[in-house]
Amino acid sequence: MTEYFNQINEADYAKLKLAIPEITILIAGADGEIGKAEKEWAEKVTHIRSYKMSKDLIGFYQEVGKTFQSDLDQLIDELPIHVADRQKILTKRLAELNPILAKLDENVAYHLYKSLLSFAKHVAKSSGGLFGFFSIGPKESEVVGLPMLHPILPVEGEEEE
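-> structure tokens emitted (161 positions)
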């Protein structure tokens, strides 16, 4: 666990790390099929974020990247195949992040929240539009804003993106 997450315990930190593959499945599977391109793009975004992200999240994404593919595969195997059942479980799990995010330093919580939203959008855009990229389909658009997470506003002096 990186020093930016010292306010939470290991179990909560593990839930935060698992949110990345859970968001991948939530978004990629919204249309009923979790495509190879979506999984590969999610892994690539995770890797990029392990060196190109705000200072407080680089270590987090480095740790997520170590087990991302195995976590993703395990979740796909464990979760129901039926979309509505799977989405219900993932929505509940992601909503459980709200009290964890509330324990974090305000800046870290804000950066992580924005990062999760951005990650969801990257996954959603990976399977539509021109040559399979840059468009969010109707099913993905229902969940891409991660409505189960409470919005976290920037700390005074922090610029909103």
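Residues 54 and 77 are 32 Å apart (CA to CA).
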